[in-house]
Design goal:
The complex is a heterodimer of chains A (350) and B (447). Chain A has 350 residues and is an alpha/beta fold. Chain A has helices at residues 2-26, 35-43, 69-81, 97-102, 117-122, 165-175, 188-197, 207-215, 220-223, 245-264, 271-277, 281-286, 293-297, 303-311, 314-321; strands at residues 45-50, 59-60, 66-67, 86-91, 108-109, 125-127, 132-134, 136-141, 156-160, 181-185, 202-206, 224-226, 234-236, 239-241. Chain A has 15 helices and 14 strands. A five-stranded mixed sheet of chain A has the order 10-9-11-8-12, with helices on both faces. A three-stranded parallel sheet of chain A has the order 4-1-5. In chain A, strands 2-3 form a two-stranded antiparallel sheet. Chain A is globular and about 60 Å long. The relative contact order of chain A is 0.14. Chain B has helices spanning 3-21, 27-40, 46-73, 78-90, 94-109, 114-131, 137-150, 159-167, 172-178, 180-197, 199-202, 220-239, 249-267, 272-277, 281-299, 306-314, 318-335, 338-355, 376-388, 398-409, 416-445. In chain B, helix 6 (114-131) runs antiparallel to helix 7 and helix 6 packs parallel to helix 20 (398-409). The longest helix of chain B is centred in the last third of the chain and has 30 residues, at 416-445.
Chain lengths: 350, 447
């Protein structure tokens, strides 16, 4: 009798357990999985997809050190996760970047990638914000008579295969009924060499990419000029997979933290001192002394201190990699803080 | 997952497979111990368990529903009745018996979930085999293998086929036009091999008693209601997803199991507890453990660089990619549950097309279905590999494990090696035929 009752209880318990398991499968799971942050923390390595080599964005110098705005952003995210987290840079050519991200080969894509509706609507990815406002421009030999885009009618124009530049060019010239011959090339190097050798009369790409390409040519700044007209908006930003809300939120706020640090006057050099001495409530909140925002994001409260200490604030990153302290010597333009006439703006840290 | 955890996971996975393959320990215990080791080493977390539940819950629900419905029908004598009729059709010939299994199972499995069909058909096969005085293990294994292979006959025949087909926007009719012939060839390939792999059964000939008649159905009212429930199950499997409230097959199985238990309870045929005790919990636990292990295996990330590697190895030559897909996915599906394998590989395959710049980057999106015909051979390789690879081993498909569980319940446990003896030669022949089909598709539709 006892054995029979035991059997009954076991059977019902098994059924209840089974029903619980099955009912979970029939319900939708929340999107925020949090796997990426846990994975980065466990292996102490952030796998960051970058370009194969583009000065100003991500470029491996002769000492084997990756430099550039994208490379520094990867470092900032790694620092936000944990002091011990290192960055493993994964060089990717353009067509491999989204497959690599979606397959989970990389945790973060920071490869001068334009934020577009199509990419967010069709792919399982999200852009965490705008790291750099750029636009598509044209580079021509200074000795040519081309001074404006309309002077390029009937010429051969070099453009990168698979980039957003290719359809932008077709749209811009097509809508105006201007004839041109596209020379579609696989890599930045090929496009640059084609322009240098006269294979095409102009090379079109994102303006900063053009400036970067020019630095690889001897006496490039003197021999080649970037036209003043832009034909597209190219907001470039870091990209993550769509299925991990926790990771998306962290990456997004790392970007905001870099901007906010500049706005608050916090630099790589003074961040530790300010952490100990500042009495400004906004500064204390930002540096994790109050508020407990780090914990809520899944990291330690001093995450902002760590990332500024590692790469500086947004302004420092820009000037070092693209601006006056770099070989590109670019003006900040739209990438100034909103308080200085630019578009860089961080929501409140409260 | 850090490097140490990756190594531990791969070692545990290999250990579990080897322990089962060499019959060192009960396979459920091996799988449970494997999962336990991964929990202790911190490789498995709550999210992994949820992912495993999400991946395997559907299959478990289908099996549970099938087991309850089959058990509900048992007291009616329906299985014995159909079995006797089936036996009469064989006229005592083992050859007709095996061919009859192919003819019975293949059309049903073209539309209904494989493992559920095995649960319903296996008792009939076992009764007939016993009456023919031959071993029933081979015929039950054949039932499982046919059920898996027949999944290729239609788009909805197997979850793996459906995952791949729907991801490239293929309709039911398009599948019939372009893929079903290959599925049919895979099923028919089995027939000439039967005398070789199941020679003893093939050569059996018994004189059936002259007065052999199907026993009448007992408890006719109860049986009629149970059959109505079975009919509801079939109809919902076929049309449930078209209803205003979409009812997916796993949900159908749970609903139907509940109705079956209600009928048992209402007719007071036997206590519900006895029906529930007879559910093959051991098989369900084993399958769930396998899904947990597969979840950890995929987390190691060893498949992640597939898209870039395929491009590095083969460039834009699609035929070698299609054949590697067929062989590679078949090999993976031999030891892993094919649903998560195929779901992971289909995304990587799309990644290959984008990396190779054969397709625009938006083709990676789940909603992108505008795939050109010339890409079909690669996806066909994936479908055939994923579906047929599971035929080789005991743990390759849920239907195999269920079939083995039913044999064990009848006193004839099926070892890994026993299943392999039947499954491996059949799978090898089927993959060879599939390769020819993929090659033909490539020649007809290639770029």
């Amino acid at each position: 009798m006892e054995a029979m009752r035991g059997g009954r209880i076991r059977a019902w318990m098994a059924l209840v357990a089974f029903a619980a398991v099955v009912s979970i499968t029939l319900l939708p799971l929340p999107a925020s999985a949090g796997e990426t942050l846990a994975g980065v923390r466990a292996r102490k390595v952030l796998r960051c997809g970058v370009s194969e080599g583009l000065i100003g964005f991500s470029f491996k110098d002769p000492a084997g050190q990756w430099t550039g705005l994208d490379a520094d952003f990867c470092r900032a995210v790694a620092a936000a996760v944990d002091k011990q987290v290192k960055v493993q840079f994964v060089p990717l050519f353009a067509s491999a970047r989204f497959p690599a991200l979606e397959a989970g080969e990389i945790d973060l894509l920071c490869r001068n990638t334009t934020w577009t509706l199509g990419r967010e609507a069709f792919l399982g990815v999200q852009f965490a914000g705008v790291l750099l406002y750029d636009g598509q421009g044209f580079m021509v030999p200074r000795k040519s008579k081309v001074r404006r885009i309309k002077d390029l009618k009937g010429t051969t124009i070099c453009v990168l295969k698979g980039s957003t530049s290719e359809p932008n060019l077709a749209d811009y010239f097509g809508v105006r009924g201007w004839k041109y011959k596209p020379l579609i090339l696989e890599s930045v190097t090929e496009a640059r060499d084609a322009l240098v050798s006269g294979g095409c009369q102009a090379y079109t790409s994102d303006e900063i990419q053009l400036a970067s390409a020019r630095t690889h040519v001897p006496d490039g700044t003197r021999r080649f000029v970037i036209l003043p007209d832009l034909i597209s908006k190219e907001p470039l930003g870091p990209v993550v997979r769509r299925d991990d809300e926790e990771w998306f939120t962290l990456v997004k706020w790392v970007l905001f933290a870099l901007i906010q640090a500049e706005e608050l006057g916090i630099t790589r050099e003074n961040v530790r001192a300010l952490e100990d001495t500042s009495t400004d409530p906004a500064m204390k909140r930002f540096l994790g002394k109050t508020g407990g925002f780090g914990k809520a994001l899944g990291v330690d409260n001093d995450w902002t201190v760590r990332l500024v200490e590692r790469v500086g604030n947004y302004g420092q990153m820009f000037e070092r990699n693209l601006g006056r302290d770099s070989v590109l010597k670019l003006d900040r333009g739209l990438n100034r803080l909103w308080t200085q006439g630019g578009l860089m703006y961080a929501p409140p840290f409260r | 997952m850090n490097d140490v955890q990756t190594i531990i996971t791969l070692a545990v996975f290999a250990g579990v497979i080897l322990a089962i393959a060499f019959n060192l320990i009960d396979m459920v215990l091996a799988a449970l111990l494997g999962v336990s080791i991964l929990i202790v080493t911190g490789s498995v977390d709550q999210q992994d368990i949820l992912n495993a539940v999400r991946a395997g819950g559907g299959a478990l629900a289908l099996l549970f529903g099938g087991m309850v419905v089959a058990r509900t029908l048992k007291p009616t004598g329906l299985f014995e009745n159909i079995s006797t009729r089936f036996l009469l059709l064989t006229r005592g010939s083992g050859k007709r018996f095996l061919l009859g299994i192919v003819a019975l199972v293949a059309p049903i499995c073209a539309f209904l979930p494989n493992a559920t069909v095995v649960i319903l058909v296996a008792p009939i096969v076992i009764s007939a085999a016993v009456a023919l005085e031959t071993d029933f293990v081979g015929p039950v294994v054949l039932t499982a293998i046919i059920s898996n292979s027949a999944g290729l006959l239609t788009l909805v025949g197997d979850p793996a086929t459906f995952i791949v087909g729907s991801s490239i926007g293929m309709t039911f009719a398009q599948y019939l036009k372009r893929m079903s012939l290959g599925g049919l060839a895979s099923v028919l390939t089995i027939i000439p091999i039967l005398p070789l792999v199941m020679g003893k059964v093939w050569r059996v000939h018994r004189d059936l008693p002259a007065d052999l008649r199907a026993k009448p159905i007992e408890r006719r009212g109860f049986c009629a209601l149970s059959l109505m429930i079975l009919a509801v199950m079939v109809m919902l499997f076929l049309f449930g997803e078209d209803l205003p409230t979409r009812i997916v097959p796993p949900a159908v199985a749970i609903i139907v199991a509940s109705l079956a238990l209600l009928v048992i309870y209402g007719f007071k045929v036997e206590p519900l507890e006895r029906v529930l005790q007879d559910v093959d919990w051991k098989t369900l636990v084993f399958i769930f453990c396998l899904f947990c292990l597969v979840e950890e295996f995929t987390k190691t990330g060893i498949m992640k660089p597939l898209a870039r590697n395929l491009f590095a190895w083969f460039g834009v030559s699609l035929l070698p990619v299609a054949l590697v897909m067929l062989a590679g996915v078949a090999l993976a599906s031999t030891f892993l549950a094919n649903i998560p394998v195929v779901a992971a590989v289909v995304l990587l395959t799309k990644g290959y097309f984008v990396v190779a710049e054969l397709m625009p980057e938006i083709a990676l999106g789940a909603r992108y279905t505008d795939w050109p015909l010339w890409s079909l051979p690669v996806f066909a390789g994936l479908m055939f590999g994923g579906t047929l690879g599971g035929n080789a081993t005991l743990i390759g498909a849920s239907a195999n494990i269920v079939g083995a569980g039913i044999c064990a319940a009848e006193g004839r446990p099926v070892s890994f090696a026993t299943f392999l003896r039947y499954g491996l030669p059949i799978t090898a022949c089927q993959l060879a035929v599939s390769a020819v089909y993929v090659l033909s598709l490539s020649l007809l539709l290639g770029r």
